[in-house]
């Protein structure tokens, strides 16, 4: 190797050191985060960080994978922020995950064993006396003073002995600041009674509600009943089938889907909501497309004056953030003080119940959504109308065709093929238009007689949201099963969109 080649290789190696150092720092930070998440009992998210750290180390640390450096960030983002949430949500649909089954089994056992019943005969107030860096617990009614305690949150045992009142006692607010240490402290009275912190103000003898016999069996101290862990339901249960919350997460297979299909309290409202979702999405697309196309045709009229002003005014609903427009419409349709009802009452003596009548509520939602959606359709239509050859229209006029006949026979057939993929995409978007429902009606009025929260104006997305986050039991597993159904439907619509785009491209391709 010549001196020039050696110098070139040396310069290239020196230029790699900053990249390698940065790669090492990022990898170490991710590894530390993965280890920390594992310690916090979040192994899944820790595994994601570990995989990301390995990928960064391999791709950016070796010249062999130089080409992969340009696509690795995008691929990693898609896997972490799109693929993983979808897969995780689908997995939840096959579990019993809910507000009653949030914990792991070991944590469930800890919670049950920590429960206790306070003996009111032994309950008495307490105070805390400082002694250097340590503290003593003073029980004024029985005249007992504890041995010095650290009260640092660790488990501590101290004996109580008769004593005079301490010279200095902490203020109540300062004693409350030590509640974690007080809660972990156990005091033994001279007669052998074990006292524990029973609240912010008292110590008392606390009888544990449950005793652990083995990892899968607990005994309830009040009646001696045995509780056995049921791996199918994720609860400790008695022989009579009584479930003791909280439970833990377990895989239940297709049970959530069976509930959707067999439970009338779930199947009935869900079918109704599905039908309304399809009508809502389809009606919005049809009316928004029709109104937008009509306005675009009017704005194309060559004799129309002030076209620029009309275009700006008609595009304004598209420029204003959607959530602001929705909240404004919520005020306009207010049944008691809304401007629309005030006008209708003054002119016709009518005061429609927009939010309590199911039919009117759905009509209101369609009106608002069409208002939000027509500017987009109008802009598209204005562009597509420009592409229609003027010679075709002139030829139709010479043949004696009316303007309406020319539009439906020549203009519409030419702009519909490129419009079709966009209409399908708009249908898929409105199929999951969660923000509109939550801000305008919150899914209400409710459907009576259901086993789950469901409303007349709910679409599948808002129905799933209420089921997961607004229901008192927060049935995440059932919501995940419904989300999978929505995913399949939207996936089918997206595939139809792809097919429509491919066919439209084939028609426009030169022969």
From TrEMBL:
The compartments listed are: Cell inner membrane; Cell membrane
Q: Which GO terms describe its biological process?
A: maltodextrin transmembrane transport
Q: Which residues cross the membrane?
A: 20-38, 44-63, 70-94, 273-299, 311-333, 353-374, 476-498
Keyword Cell inner membrane, does the record have it? yes
**What CDD domains does this protein map onto?**
TM_PBP2
GO cellular component terms, semicolon-separated: maltose transport complex
Q: Where is the ABC transmembrane type-1 domain?
A: 274-497
- What Pfam families does this protein's entry cite? BPD_transp_1, MalF_P2
Q: Which UniProt keywords apply?
A: Cell inner membrane, Cell membrane, Membrane, Sugar transport, Transmembrane, Transmembrane helix, Transport
- Per UniProt, what is the membrane topology? Multi-pass membrane protein
* Principal place of residence: membrane
**What one GO molecular function would you report for this record?**
ABC-type maltose transporter activity
Binding partners and assembly? The complex is composed of two ATP-binding proteins (MalK), two transmembrane proteins (MalG and MalF) and a solute-binding protein (MalE).
Biological function: Part of the ABC transporter complex MalEFGK involved in maltose/maltodextrin import. Probably responsible for the translocation of the substrate across the membrane.
Concerning its family, UniProt says: Belongs to the binding-protein-dependent transport system permease family. MalFG subfamily.
This protein is called Maltose/maltodextrin transport system permease protein
State the species of origin: Oceanicola granulosus (strain ATCC BAA-861 / DSM 15982 / KCTC 12143 / HTCC2516)
